[in-house]
Amino acid sequence: MPENRPAGGQPDFATINLEYIADKKCVELKSFKLYIWAFREEGAFHEDVTNQILSDLVAATEPRFMRITAEFNVRGGVYTTVIAEHRADGWVAPEPVNLP
Length: 100
Description:
This protein is α+β, with helices and mostly antiparallel strands. The protein is built from two helices and three strands; from the N terminus they run E-H-H-E-E. A three-stranded antiparallel beta sheet has the order 1-2-3, with helices on one face. Strand 2 and strand 3 form a beta hairpin.
């Protein structure tokens, strides 16, 4: 059992949401799905998994902005949502357009 596996060793299920503003590269959805599946047999804490996904995708795509939201199913009566973000140096979010 890997060192970072949570003590219970129980499987975790999560919904992973990816939001990003690309620069010159993008994420191909089938590749993203296969990458996420690679975590199925890994033992890791929720925060570690979320930050690893963000780090790997930022390294691969160099986006202007990226946010990973990982909504993990209940464990011990506690739901966990982990949000990790990246902003490229100098990138400023545009003001939202509010339509009537």
